[in-house]
Amino acid sequence: MNRANDIQGVFEQVGDQIDWDSLLAANSEQDVAKAFAPMHEDYQKKFAFRFHLVLECLRDKKFPTQDRNAQKQFIADSLAGDGRITIRRSRDICQEERSKLRKQGTIIRREFYIVCSCGYKGPGMNNACPKCGAVVSMLDFALGVS
Question: Is the pTM of this model over 0.85?
Answer without folding.
Answer: no
